[in-house]
DNA sequence: GTGTGACTTATAGTCCGTG
DNA sequence: GCACGGACTATAAGTCACA
């Protein structure tokens, strides 16, 4: 179905993942490794091409040392919880 | 893969959905209709049997008139964002 | 180090029921 | 109104070769 809202959400996730990853000086490969996912898969998420599931979301959050809801929040401030 | 973290997340989602739904006096059917999902699917989500995608998460949030990150936050207090 | 299209396999999600 | 199952279809997961 992919409504406009869903598109925005994927986009938000993409931006958050990319920002957090670069914030920690990781490559897509490094994040993929840390999250237990694949390089190209992480890449396609960052390009908001994927409609990821809770499971992948969780893996991603783990790899980025953050919380799942952080990846889906529009966050300008304290994003990195030490 | 379904790590323990992913299990917890599904469980949290299940609780939040059920609580918010009942809070608004909706049946699973009513929510399914409002979210554009299927009756049995909503039921299985509330039983934390499903690893839902962003798209469904968005639809669910829409049907519950809330935000996606609310469904994934451990929320004791102000759940309804004004 | 990243983008992209193609591809296979796993599972998300629908729809039919039953108690 | 809800839990749960079986069978099905659509799509996410996961991997690759190459730009």
Overall description:
The structure is a homodimer of 82-residue chains. Chain A contains 5 helices and no strands. With 82 residues, chain A is mainly α. The longest helix of chain A has 20 residues, at 4-23. The termini of chain A are far apart. At the A-B interface, helix 1 and helix 4 of A face helix 1 and helix 4 of B. The first copy, chain A, binds a DNA duplex (19 and 19 nucleotides) through helix 3.
Topology:
The structure is a homodimer of 82-residue chains.
Chain A: H1 4-23, H2 28-35, H3 39-46, H4 54-63, H5 68-71
Helix pairs in contact in A: 2-3, 2-4
The structure holds a DNA duplex (19 and 19 nucleotides).
Question: What would a concise description of this structure say?
Answer:
The structure is a homodimer of 82-residue chains. Chain A is an all-alpha fold and 82 residues long.
Task: Identify the biggest protein-protein contact and residues per side.
Answer: A-B, 22 and 22 residues
Oligomeric state of the chains? homodimer
Low-confidence stretches of chain A: 77-82
Molecular shape of chain A? globular
Taken as a percent bin, the fraction of beta residues of chain A is: under 5%
Distance between the termini of chain A: 38 Å
In helices, the fraction of residues of chain A equals 55-70%
For the largest beta-sheet of chain A, the strand count, sense and barrel status come to: none
**Number of strand segments of chain A:** 0
Query: Any idea what the radius of gyration of chain A is?
Result: 12 Å
Helix/strand-derived category of chain A reads mainly alpha
The total count of helices of chain A amounts to: 5
Mean pLDDT of chain A: 87
Order of helices and strands of chain A: HHHHH
């Amino acid at each position: 179905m992919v409504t406009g809202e869903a598109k925005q959400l994927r986009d938000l996730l993409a931006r958050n993942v990319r920002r957090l990853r670069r914030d920690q000086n990781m490559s897509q490969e490094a994040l993929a490794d840390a999250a237990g996912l694949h390089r190209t898969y992480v890449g396609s998420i960052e390009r908001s091409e994927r409609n990821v599931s809770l499971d992948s979301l969780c893996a991603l959050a783990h790899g980025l040392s953050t919380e799942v809801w952080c990846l889906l929040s529009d966050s300008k401030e304290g994003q990195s919880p030490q």
